[in-house]
Amino acid sequence: CVRSGACLVVKEQRSRFSLGTAENQILVILVSAFVVLLVASTVYQVSQNRTAEEWAQSEYTGKTVAFRLLSLDRMRPEEMQGFVDANSSCDEGFTVTEEPYAAPSNTQEANDIRRSIAANLEKMSGLISLNKSMADILVARATFTERDFAFAKCEAGEIEFPIDGIVISIQLETGEWFNLSVTERRFEFGGESIFSAIRIDFFFLLVGIIALFFVLRLTRPLSRLTQAVSRFGTNLEVEDVEESGPVDIRKAIRRFNTMQREVRDEMKRRTQMLASVGHDIRTPLTALRVKAELIENEEAREDIIAGIEKMERITASALDYVRGESRSEPKQHVDLRALIESECSEFEELGYQVSFTGESDVHYDCRPIALARAIRNLIDNSVKYAGSADVELVKGDEWIEIWVLDSGPGIPDDQRNRVLDPFTRLSDARESEKGGLGLGLAITKAIVDGHDGVLKLEPNQQKGLKAAIQLPFNQYRAG
Questions:
Q1: Euclidean distance between CA atoms 226 and 166, whole angstroms
Q2: CATH number attached to the domain at 332-478
Q3: Is the pTM of this model over 0.90?
Q4: pLDDT value at position 29?
Q5: How far apart are alpha carbons 215 and 226 in whole angstroms?
Q6: What is the DSSP letter of 100?
Q7: Chain segment 4-29, per-residue pLDDT in tens
Q8: pLDDT tens, residue by residue, 185-197
Q9: How would you classify residue 13: left for phi > 0, otherwise alpha for psi between -120 and 50, otherwise beta?
Q10: What kind of fold does domain 236-328 have according to CATH?
Q11: 403 neighbors 466 (Cβ within 8 angstroms)
Q12: What are residue 457's DSSP bridge partners?
């Protein structure tokens, strides 16, 4: 790390997004549903062909007629042809002639088109000045060649001629006739087709955004509660969660706030009680020891002193266990290799065979005093029952692991879970003068649990025990 404290994270921390949470599952389902709707609507729009009759009745054609009429009515006759040539395109050609392009039809289909054009012109009468009624509009069926309207501007092979279509004719103020050709339209990435698809997709998207907003608003209290539960479960951090959201979620938050305060107070009371007992019991034990020293019978004196020392060890171990469960020690950014080497060196100075191997520059956010106690307990067990210990620091894909291996009597498979309980001791080699009070592994497990880690006990190859402290990778940083 640089001195400013900025560290480069070489292992990506656990992602906050997880499909295991109800909130994220709801979001994924909702987003997936709207993506499917958007894709389906777009595919539908693209796959749809519009006949000449349908296109003639569209709003786009009505607007095209209106703006062309408005422009032409404001022009002098000699200007019209230039405007027609400049604004006609392959499939959107129009002309100005002295007579209608073709004899008008009087079918139901033609009347529907006339009615639609008239309705569109009336709709736009507030924007532009057009005095056209249904009687002023003529509709005729026609067959076009590449010489008609602006079809000459089409690229080779773009349209197969001859092609059937519709001509809409409306008389101008000058007495001449405006003629617009309408043919079958396929979806194109331009013009009315793409705008129609965009409008539909936009409404889907708008509804999706609104739905996502309310889903997030609904699930946000649940997310805050989950984070608070995680903090409390890992570090016993008590922080009241704001009561918001639906009634049942508010009720759950209220119960959780009450529960974590009660657990915190009970932990404080238990710690204070044991500390008081440990303190108060030392005075009579000291007095007993002084009196025991005055006993002349050496055998009786040693037995009594041994009993007093055992009571002192029980008291001290009980207090150590409570401190091991406590998570009040603030976390610090430490070099794990240096911390483990320090513990190994202390045992070596006492004459024990303790070796250490491991990777360097493994920095970790932890409670160093508590974690050192956990490592010390495991090494102490190994040297006590096997005479030596091999300690390794291993950086895996998901865990930082601290191994303590020995070649002692080991622990039977069916007893490995039981020895992690307080005041549990095994028989044979471990139920001897070397044996402790059955709190070492319990204290270690409490400390590891406080780091959101795992303590594992496994056979060490053919003989002995492998104790592994697994610490989650999300607190690891490169040195």
A1: 65
A2: 3.30.565.10
A3: no
A4: 78
A5: 16
A6: -
A7: 333 333 333 334 456 666 667 777 77
A8: 655 544 445 566 6
A9: beta
A10: Helix Hairpins (1.10.287)
A11: yes
A12: 467
